[in-house]
Amino acid sequence: MTTSTQQQDASTTDSFISLRDVVFRHDTRNILDGLNLDIAQGSVVAILGPSGVGKSTILKLITGQIRPVSGTITVNRQRVDQLSGTQLNRYRKTLGVMLQNSALLTDMTVFENVALPVREHTRLPEPVIRRLVLSKLQAVGLRGSIDMLPRELSGGMARRVALARALVLDPELVLYDEPFTGLDPIAAATVSKLIRHVNEALNVTSVVITHDVDRMQGLIDCAHIMIGGKIAASGTPAQLAADETPMIRQFMQGLADGPVPFHYPAPDLAEDLLQ
Amino acid sequence: MNKYEHDAGLSLNLSRQLADLGSCGLFLPQILLRIRPSLKQLGNVMRQLYFVGTRSMIIILTSGFFIGLVIALQGYNTLVQFGASESLGAVVALSLFRELGPVLTALLFTGRAGTSIAAEIGLMKATEQLDALELMAIDPVERIVLPRFIAAVIAVPLLTAMFNLLAVTGAYLFAVEWVNLDPGLFWGRMISAVDLGPDYLSGVYKSVVFGIVIALVSVFQGYNAEPTGRGVAVATTQTVIVSSILILILDFILTALLI
Hints:
The structure holds 2 protein chains of 2 kinds.
Chain A: H1 5-8, E1 15-26, E2 29-40, E3 44-48, H2 55-63, E4 70-75, E5 78-79, H3 85-92, E6 95-98, H4 110-121, H5 126-139, H6 155-167, E7 173-177, H7 185-202, E8 205-210, E9 222-227, E10 230-235, H8 237-241, H9 246-253, H10 269-274
Parallel strand pairs in A: 3-8, 3-9, 6-7, 7-8
Antiparallel strand pairs in A: 1-2, 1-4, 4-5, 9-10
Chain B: H1 3-10, H2 14-32, H3 39-52, H4 57-79, H5 88-126, H6 129-135, H7 140-178, H8 183-193, H9 196-223, H10 229-258
């Protein structure tokens, strides 16, 4: 089902997330250049691409941290790019976001970190909060770490606590920013398994921003590869692996040189050395 | 001048410094508008009061005691030449309450707590903790900046009072135990020379203003730090530079107004 960008433009009224003709610019450089993307409800979707291609920009657009220069961003029939401050806060309560650095508050214990959104946004009594937090930590296998501080956790444990915190208010959409970066194979496999498990158990929509092609098998329903500020290809991991387009093949096979050049643009080496 | 010197705040780019100062001033109403009478906020402020206030006590009290000793030593050596050594208590108290107490406490507090606030908030920004709060629909200014700001504003006048207390104690020990001045004369001259309004309260007013300045500069520098290791270092350095200069300028202005 490998599709071109043209097929992305097809109207998808049942999409949970829909980005249409999105342009985002940083200084004078176009990071996203007329990007179209649709993500169905309840699916696990990966946005793949080389570093610096604008994957995290998509996450920031979906969470409303930044606004596009032009184009529309719709999540669950809400125009995220048009939300006011109060509406944005209401919308964000329906999101769970796991950031690349885990971003646990360093002066709080694991329990306090996971309990934070509940304490801030609900008036639940403390015993109920405790039960809720413990159940989320149990789901990620870290109920025994409630009194630990973030600095005492390994990278994989910190990601799992961040996942528990992202899920504590039962979100409709969970976004993962580079969830496998810096993790050893066991920790990465654990996080990968948890992402799939969470998606099936809670019926949430999951978006995984990553450059880790190897982790995609068995985790995602569909992947979109970003190159040059647009979606260059979409499909299952197997379909993308079989894609013969040079750029897609270079990315999927991890080739150092190809349409995406190894060298950053520079003057001729001989000229540079003789200067 | 290279980029590093410029970023480290060693530049004399006046327009940039003034623009930063203006942005810093505009940050104040953003903080104050988030004050709410809630137990949750009170709890956060109390926790920060411990970190910025209680934990600054050792340096403030130790410095106060030794500065009291030094002022008494210097003052005595001068006064004794004019046969006015019995006025030592008055000289010590006036110089402490009016000037040295508020100014030195503010400068010490900047070095101990202001830098810590700026570095902590800057590091939270660099490690995406502020982003994470925003994404959980929790306002980082209300949750992180406001408690630290209020705690610093409360801590500075209290620490100034403690500084003065220890400095007077140091001066008393020097005067009575070392150079054998009469304790009654020491206290009597002090009490008769110090007027509550122009002398003691002017120092209190100054310490409140200094507290606001240090708190505002620290949280502003941290919150607007470039989210990198060097950005945090620059924010910390700028906190010391900007706070110290503002404290000294404002001290002159306030003295001129209150004298």
